[in-house]
Amino acid sequence: MSSKIYFSDKSGAKPFSYYGVKALSSTVARIAPAVGKKFARRLLLTPVRHQSKASKPLEMSSYTINTQFEALHVYELGHGPVVLFTHGWSGSASQFYPLMEKVASLGFKAVAFDHYAHGMSAGKEANLPLFIRAIDAVQKHLNEGIHAAISHSMGCVAALNTINPLLHVLIAPPFDFYNGFEQRILSTGISKTLFKSVIHSVEQQHQMRFDNLLPELHLAKHDKVLIIHDVQDKFAQHDNSQAVVKQYPHVELISTQGLGHGRIINDDHTWQSVQTQLQKLQAQ
């Protein structure tokens, strides 16, 4: 259900369902807050498991690692310095298969994983702190430096928080993350009280404050950041990436046209940009 909220591109007049949800959620928040928070948490923190259309490369290995929370499914292809891939909300590692094959062909070890409650990994709930926890667990398991990180959508936010590679490639990053997140949820009619209670419970559980996790706060600590973003992206605003580039001179933006939020991952323009940057690292 949460994917319908996060990836809705509806705007304009509010549907009748908005007023029904708003009245119901406001009432529940007032007379039965514990029940309301449990319902809202399930609604907002349950991703849809991505159904991959991509075939797993024949030479790719996969395995499961046990972590503090749930088991994570990891995928590896190739040999060499590690390039770590991290997907977004309701995505999976399989979205990167074509790009991983190309990266591995350059002489890198391409590593991806399914976040908690995504793909083949265990779990029923996900959120931004859990995305960060998952990346930390995979890095600890690999026990080697990350040469480059390639991330998509919400995965970009988590990656900037916790990976320190020579190169960050951010595909369709959702800058102004918290405001966009809140607006999409409140646009369904869910009461602000319930929304805030869920956010607070997640922050308490993981001892992370969302306002400390915003991607803009972490750009300055990374030396090389490449953003690849489509002008017509309906879910992560291209204008926000343009604003970031103006503020941070070391951040480069490559804009595409007509690829939207998902198809951009494996488009040839994306690959050409990634290839150029990785070859520059190899030449150093």
From TrEMBL:
Q: Name one GO molecular function term.
A: hydrolase activity
Alphabetical keyword list: Hydrolase
Q: Which GO terms describe its cellular component?
A: membrane
Limits of the AB hydrolase-1 domain: 83-175
**What's the name of the protein?**
Esterase
